[in-house]
Task: inverse folding
């Protein structure tokens, strides 16, 4: 069961009950309904590049982890850039189509020197050995969540404007929490070097980082136990992006790592 749907249903039922009982004092009415269960979702930040011959192996690892734990529980974002995100010097050393300036800034922030590399809930730093990805996922997915995140989207096809609302409800009080909201796109057919050295121009890239909806390094958010806060953003989608293949990934993180992650489609299915 989707806990956010059950949470919303509980809130609606509570509201209906309260409106039918006019004798209850306004100050005694329950506003916050703490969910019975919140499942921890794990974020994998995959530092990848189109000229990286071993990077498809990382994509395969992510697929296996999603098959094992469920796609809703393992949320991946492919951050394209680094040394293998550009054409060769002979070709002018230009950024390839999936490389972004923001993505490159994350390479610098985290000191990424090898590709593929990844972070699992930003715990343990940058991991270059794919074997460790699975081990860290196994450890992170059993942690107790500290926040509940509910992202919702409203997309206007005519203007290509996307409105994103993110509600964060505290299950514990956190110090130094930040909220990050990203746009990702799936099913992009584009060039990729393969492990055997061949060029695959029909490679399907998934969970590709497109842009940060809020500040690229996240923004401070006040996470207090049994309190909630909402943030609203607007962003125009690039004409080359396909909204039907896009999602919003929202996560809350602290110095101790990513506390919770949620993903929702840009266009309602």
Result:
């Amino acid at each position: 069961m989707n806990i956010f749907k059950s949470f919303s249903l509980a809130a609606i039922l509570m509201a209906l009950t309260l409106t039918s009982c006019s004798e209850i004092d306004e100050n005694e009415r329950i506003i916050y309904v703490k969910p019975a269960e919140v499942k921890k979702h794990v974020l994998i930040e995959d530092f990848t590049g189109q000229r990286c011959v071993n990077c498809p192996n990382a994509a395969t690892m992510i697929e296996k982890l999603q098959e094992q734990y469920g796609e809703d529980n393992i949320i991946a974002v492919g951050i394209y850039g680094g040394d293998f995100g550009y054409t060769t010097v002979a070709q002018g050393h230009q950024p390839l189509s999936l490389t972004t300036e923001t993505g490159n800034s994350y390479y610098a922030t985290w000191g990424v020197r090898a590709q593929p590399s990844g972070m699992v809930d930003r715990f343990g730093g940058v991991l270059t050995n794919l074997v460790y990805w699975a081990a860290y996922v196994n450890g992170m997915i059993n942690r107790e969540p500290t926040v509940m995140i509910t992202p919702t989207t409203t997309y206007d096809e005519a203007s290509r404007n996307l409105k994103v609302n993110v509600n964060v409800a505290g299950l514990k009080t956190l110090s130094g929490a930040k909220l990050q909201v990203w746009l990702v796109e799936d099913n992009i057919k584009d060039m990729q070097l393969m492990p055997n050295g061949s060029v695959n121009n029909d490679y399907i890239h998934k969970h590709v980082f497109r842009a940060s909806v809020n500040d690229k390094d996240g923004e401070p958010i006040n996470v207090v136990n049994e309190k909630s806060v909402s943030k609203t953003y607007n962003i125009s989608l690039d004409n080359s992006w396909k909204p039907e293949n896009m999602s919003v990934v929202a996560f809350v993180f602290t110095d101790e790592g990513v506390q919770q992650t949620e993903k929702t489609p840009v266009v309602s299915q």
